[in-house]
């Protein structure tokens, strides 16, 4: 099973879209809101500067690519 981690921020429509989509598809994910400085620093350390920033088995997805997301997760 692919481990999914999503870095998000408050009032981020794309973040909400991705979280809702994964929830509807019954995909477990860990959310890390960058309001927490530790999570913000983790994201920046991976050269990511916008949300949602997604990690699929520790592989970064810097832009939301629904085709790649669906393919990787078998949706």
UniProtKB/TrEMBL annotation:
Top-rank taxon, per record: Bacteria
Annotated Glutaredoxin domain residues: 4-58
SUPFAM superfamilies: Thioredoxin-like
Any Pfam family matching the protein: Glutaredoxin
CDD domains according to UniProt: NrdH
InterPro entries: Glutaredoxin, Thioredoxin-like_sf
UniProt-recorded name of the protein: Glutaredoxin
Higher taxonomy: Bacteria, Bacillati, Bacillota, Bacilli, Bacillales
């Amino acid at each position: 099973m692919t481990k999914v981690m999503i870095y998000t921020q408050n009032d981020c429509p794309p973040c909400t879209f991705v979280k809702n989509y994964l929830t509807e598809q019954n995909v477990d994910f860990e959310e890390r809101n960058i309001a927490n400085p530790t999570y913000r620093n983790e994201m920046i350390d991976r050269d990511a500067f916008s949300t949602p920033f997604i990690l699929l088995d520790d592989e970064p997805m810097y832009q939301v690519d629904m085709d790649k997301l669906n393919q990787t997760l078998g949706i």
